[in-house]
From TrEMBL:
CC per GO annotation: cytoplasm
Protein name (Swiss-Prot/TrEMBL): Chaperone protein HtpG
Keywords, sorted A to Z: ATP-binding, Chaperone, Cytoplasm, Nucleotide-binding, Stress response
Name of encoding gene: htpG
Cellular localisation: Cytoplasm
Domain Histidine kinase/HSP90-like ATPase residues, every copy: 26-183
Major subcellular site: cytoplasm
Quaternary organization: Homodimer.
Length: 672
């Protein structure tokens, strides 16, 4: 049958271009990727057969073969695993399913230097395509277990690939690489050298639980004579025999004792299960004995993957039962907020046929889940006390995800709060823990103050912050989306209630200070009563109330919410998620010491019929009526502008921006 030519999907093509021009310096990893895929394929086949899904294949000798042809300069990786159907080849090899790809490629293009490109590739992992770093062309021959015909795929990685049906393919998949010429300067080594290949397998794939076999040249039985000349030595080499050997030790790392396993070996297992090319930040081992026996090796990555916040992000826990791979992405073992944790859990007493549904309800699994979560959280806690830099990396990468747990994991809420840290006005660079915040609280301070917003800078210059700054109260600055939500559901930490500085009334004065200013406050209240009730009416459609503020020192006005109201940011978020949110009216607070506000009060008092007899006296004369109308309109517009300014300072949206601009322009014009 003739070959059909297909085009690679756009993203795949871009990625391939990068591989061909190999911007990744460690090219050895191509083999790890191919072996990893082969091992997965063997896992899948064994599982299908164990579950008796109607597949009738010989699984008595599942393994991976590596073949080298020095003359042809080819390297072949062959497995007798699950294989791929014709459609699967087109779908899986010609396109990239990972939803973070487009973003990844954009960042890669923008990456300034090769070090940051490498880091990005490392975070993403390019799988099969890594072959094009070392090969000019790649041929893949595969037959899906249970099907009779096979498929041959071939490409030079340049934009198109061909796919052809073949009658006589062995079961499984073989990938043949036609190797590029060696270029040691570019770290392109001689991958047709059995020793090099063997070294790579030992380094990256030793723990793979399937035998990886290859022909290794053994010196012939008879040793060269001692003191033999060079020529004789090479004659002896000619007599070397190729012997097929299993290169890897095949030992499941989680089943070996801790002292036997090196950090490098753990790292390689991590790379295999996570598809990450970087080392993990932390490795966690659990050996549970007793009624329900299991072993777990968990890893915290050193980078958050691109698609961590995308829907359908896959959790990285693989479930094994007595060394047999059962499933990827075992959601029953790790909660959503720890979805970044990767690793392997090997349980001794589960059925091989266990399904996701059964797992969700299994009591033993629930106990395991609890233990794993506690262990991850305690590891983070240790990291915090042991290694501040490492914890800082963890928090930067995963803090926003971990905080989701404050909403869903009531049992571990204290533990999550304990390992969380937050930007704060106390220090421009270093975040603080809640415990540290509480230790610094001022005498008499009852609340842990926080503000939510888009950026630190915006919050620091927000009107809400003024009184807190003036009086030296520390405020937590929360910028993650999830912060808007969890602060609503976590009432307190160590008995100290959390309080938004943009909500409710602010009361930062001590009892003494209050006494001192009481008389003044009452006077102000009386002086402004007329203006406040007039403005509340005037802006009635837009605000709940207009009142005097005790949080402002330099701004004229600000918008605040009632304690029980959702914040404007949360309102927007909920709407964006398609939820119906009833419109919440806010409170407008005025700064009585600001000239604009005191001026407005004066103008209002003079203009208002009750406050100014002069207006009444002159009412007989029509011109005075017009003047009063005009100043009434001016006053109303001033109130409207003040409200608009407060909204903008809060990062809010104006209901009619063009009207606001016109009013503002008119006023500015009059000052010229
Ligand atoms: N030897 C193989 N046998 C069967 N299927 C394979 C084999 N190699 C690759 N595949 C299929 O092709 C898919 C794509 O492989 P590829 O290596 O590009 O990505 P991946 O392993 O899924 O993930 P990553 O890109 O993160 O490494 C695999 O998920 C698998 O379904």
């Amino acid at each position: 049958m003739s070959a059909e030519t297909f085009e690679f999907q756009v993203e795949a093509r871009q990625l391939l271009q990068m591989m061909i021009h190999s911007i990744y310096s460690n090219k050895d990893v191509f083999l790890r990727e191919l072996i990893s895929n082969a091992s997965d394929a063997l896992d899948k086949l064994r599982l299908e057969v164990l579950r008796d899904e109607g597949i009738n294949e010989d699984v008595s000798d599942l393994h991976i073969d590596i073949e080298i042809d020095k003359e042809q300069r080819t390297l072949t990786v062959r497995d007798n695993g699950i294989g791929m159907s014709h459609d699967e080849v087109v779908k899986l090899i010609g396109t990239i399913a990972n939803s973070g790809t487009a973003k990844f490629l954009k960042e890669l293009k923008e990456a300034k230097d090769s070090a940051s490109s490498e880091e990005l590739i490392g975070q993403f992992g390019v799988g099969f395509y890594a072959s094009f770093m070392v090969a000019d062309d790649v041929t893949l021959l595969t037959r899906r277990a249970g099907e009779s015909g096979g498929t041959r795929w071939h490409s030079t990685g340049e934009g198109t690939y061909t796919v052809e049906s073949v009658d006589d393919a062995p079961q499984g998949t073989s990938v043949v690489l036609r190797l590029k010429a060696e270029d040691a300067e570019d770290q392109l080594f001689d991958y047709a050298s059995p020793w090099k290949v063997r070294e790579i397998i030992k380094r990256y794939s030793d723990f793979i639980t399937w035998p990886i076999r290859m022909a290794v040249e053994k010196p012939a039985a008879q040793e060269p004579e001692p003191g033999a000349a060079e020529g004789e030595e090479s004659a002896a080499e000619d007599k070397a025999e190729a012997e097929v050997e299993t290169v890897n030790s095949m030992k499941a790392l989680w089943a070996r004792s801790k002292s036997e396993v090196t950090d490098e070996e753990y790292s390689e297992l991590y790379k295999h299960v996570s598809h990450d090319w970087n080392d993990p930040l932390e490795t966690i081992r659990i050996q549970a004995e007793g009624a329900f026996e299991y072993q777990a090796l968990l890893f915290i990555p050193s980078h958050a993957p691109q698609d961590l916040f995308m829907q359908g992000f896959r959790r990285g826990i693989q479930l094994y039962v007595k060394r047999v791979f059962i499933m990827d992405d075992c959601e029953a073992l790790m909660p959503d907020y720890l979805r970044f944790v990767k690793g392997v859990v090997d349980a001794a007493d589960l059925s091989l046929n266990v399904s996701r549904e059964i797992l969700q309800q299994d009591r033993q699994i629930q106990l395991m889940h609890r233990r794993l979560v506690k262990k991850v959280l305690s590891t983070v806690k240790d990291m915090m006390s042991r290694d501040a830099d490492r914890y800082a990396t963890f928090w930067k990468e995963f803090g926003a995800v971990l905080k989701e747990g404050l909403l869903s994991d009531f049992e571990n809420r204290e533990a999550i709060l304990g390992v969380s840290s937050f930007a704060s006005t106390h220090d421009a660079a270093a975040p603080t823990t809640l415990k540290e915040y509480v230790e610094r609280m001022k005498e008499g301070q009852q609340h842990i103050f926080y503000m939510t917003g888009d950026s630190r800078t915006a919050m620091e210059s927000s009107p809400h912050m003024e009184a807190f700054k003036a009086k030296g109260f520390e405020v937590l600055l929360l910028t993650d989306r999830v912060d808007e939500v969890w602060v609503q559901s976590v009432p307190e930490f160590e008995g100290k209630p959390l309080q938004s500085i943009a909500k409710g009334e602010v009361d930062l004065d001590t009892e003494e200070e209050k006494k001192e200013v009481e008389a003044e406050r009452e006077q102000r209240q009386a002086d402004f009563a007329g203006l406040l009730s007039w403005m509340t009416d005037q802006l009635g459609g837009e605000v709940k109330e207009v009142r005097l503020s005790s949080r402002l020192t330099s701004s004229p006005a600000c918008i605040v919410s009632d304690n029980s109201d959702v914040t404007p940011a949360l309102e927007n978020m909920l709407r964006a998620m398609g939820q119906e949110v009833p419109e919440v009216k806010r409170i407008l607070e005025l700064n009585p010491t600001h000239p604009l506000v005191s001026g407005l009060r004066k103008a209002h008092a003079e203009q208002a019929p009750s406050g100014g007899d002069a207006a009444k006296d002159e009412a007989a004369d029509g011109t005075a009526d017009d003047a009063a109308d005009e100043s009434g309109t001016g006053l109303a517009e001033a109130a409207e502008l003040l409200h608009g300014m407060a909204l903008l300072a809060d990062g809010g949206e104006l209901s009619d921006p063009s009207r606001f601009i016109k009013l503002m322009a008119d006023r500015v014009e009059r000052t010229l």
